[in-house]
Amino acid sequence: MGRKPDKDGAYGKPAKYDPSFRGPIKNRGCTDVICCVLFLLFILGYIVVGIVAWVYGDPRQVLYPRNSTGAYCGIGQNKEKPYLLYFNIFNCILGTNIITAATNGLQCPTPQPVLQSLEQELCPRFLLPSSPALGRCFPWSNVTSPELPGISNTSISQGISGVLDALNARDISVKIFEDFAQSWYWILVALGVALLLSLLFILLLRLVAGPLVLLLILGVLAVLAYGIYHCWKEYRVLRDQGASISQLGFTTNLSAYQSVQETWLAALILLAVLEGILLLMLIFLRQRIRIAIALLKEASKAVGQMLSTMFFPLLTFVLLLICIAYWAMTALYLATSGQPQYVYWAPNASLPGCEEVPMNASCDPMAPSRNYSCPGLMCVFQSYSSTGLVQRSIFNLQIYGVLGLFWTVNWVLALGQCVLAGAFASFYWAFHKPRDIPTFPLASAFIRTLRYHTGSLAFGALILTLVQLARIVLEYIDHKLRGAQNPVARCIMCCFKCCLWCLEKFIKFLNRNAYIMIAIYGKNFCVSAKNAFMLLMRNIIRVVVLDKVTDLLLFFGKLLVVGGVGVLAFFFFSGRIQGLGKDFENPHLNYYWLPIMTSIVGAYVIASGFFSVFGMCVDTLFLCFLEDLERNDGSRDRPYYMSKSLLKILGKKNEAPPGDKKRKK
Fold first, then answer.
1. What's the pLDDT tens digit per position in 332-385?
2. In the chain, how long is the greatest CA-to-CA distance?
3. Phi then psi dihedrals of residue 126, to 5 deg
4. What is the CA radius of gyration of the chain?
5. What residues does each domain of the chain span?
6. Are the CB atoms for 429 and 422 separated by under 8 Å?
7. What are the tens digits of pLDDT across the range 376-424?
8. Which sequence ranges are marked TM in the entry (predicted)?
9. How far apart are CA 98 and CA 385, in angstroms?
């Protein structure tokens, strides 16, 4: 049975019977209007930031190399000239840092050939065999330098090799593209198998949920029992050898503790305690485990009645993709805002005639050069300007964009949870199933949520966003303090990070149940969160049991789907499955692990999407079940809405209406 409320009402009063309640309330009003207005204004500002970034930004600055005059290679007038050639690559390797800020691209203080350079007789002093990498020409590593005395060819070769190893991903990318071109349809087949396995697993739970949960629990018991046996075996061997921690002493080498008997004894005690707790739970909480299994079966039936809910995550995925893509494009355009700046540069500023040149002073590469007698003087590209209102505000605009990313992503996830909760709640509160289930429960819940509860979803998403941003700031501070090696500071930082992690998990749990109550009763976020929390606290033992049983079952389901697809993909793409016929030949791949990993990741995403819907269904039906127990008593006027299997487990029954002899017992 559920936990009875405290006499002092510490967890609130049980829900009272409402004769007009028949599931998700249709006559409702808008909730959290102020937060809705703030969210819409924020989105409007987010759009303005995107427009500003679009106007002032230029992503070509990071996509294409630029020559000495600032012209892009590979586009426009240089469309037939995609590669950038450095006059003296050794200046890049030996004299400077090749890789600068991402927005400045790969810059090098050496002239880059254009028509003007030829007219000024500034041709390269030598040419080397080269290959393209990131749109730039880099020499092969087996070259020698005839003009750099005092510098070994080994160091030059190593420098060039380092550049090529770091940047030349062209061949690999081409091979990866070829592999995807050869295997994309087989990857789609693997993803289709993952979809079918996920759907079948959920639909078959109504038949096998009980035996499967029992099998999984026994499997956990068996694993713990083997762990106890293994620890005892290791402990006995080390005890006979006399290996003790007193002989080892304190050491930072954690692997050394495997060779002392106390380690295995502590592990044995811990596993034995876990085994004992699990056995006691099976004995004393078997009734609640049966309730959890019955709710899982009921959730499988609900999904079977509303199969459209299984594909609702596709809409959520598209919305998330839009949010992430918009932020990424906005951040890219903001990072590339600014005009190119050019400065004077010479290979050797100490030569006669160069002292009068204002090195690093701004210049115009297209204007006629002044009468400087400095040998090799060039006007080269340096960076992009950081002056101007937009450029000075880039950091603030990027922060605004990050806040927009987290807030919109969390709002989209909240929308998906609330819509699914509304659809599944309409299933539970249908007294005669499936006759009383609304015609389009998912569409009705979607329209109802957008129309009335945009503000409530934004409120919950904002709370979660602030906590996540606090965690990011804390991670940044921790990254900066790692070099300090202050154990006290590290300990305090670890405690703060742990607290924020726990807070984020709690807020996600609270938001999830608040959205369920919003979908059912149409109240604001704070009231819904309070009512959900009080309802769960009045039935805390049932909450824990259902949560753990559901987690165990869904973990097994993901393992089954991902593992099955992964094994099939491995045997197929590695060529171990032969004889499928001419139309089913194994593709010839450069990296056979690439489609395997793609299939596994895709299967995990699909399984997570399906099982997230099922998990939301279980949570919704569970809250409805608890409300049903508190609202109704099985009488003729207040019948229970739960299934007959749940009524049987609880030892309850609905009173049969007059004349219904079949239901009288």
1. 888 777 667 777 777 677 777 777 777 777 777 666 556 677 777 777 766 666
2. 116
3. -155, 160
4. 33
5. 340-384
6. no
7. 777 776 666 666 666 677 888 889 999 999 999 999 999 999 999 999 9
8. 33-56, 184-205, 212-229, 264-285, 306-329, 411-431, 452-474, 514-537, 549-573, 593-626
9. 20
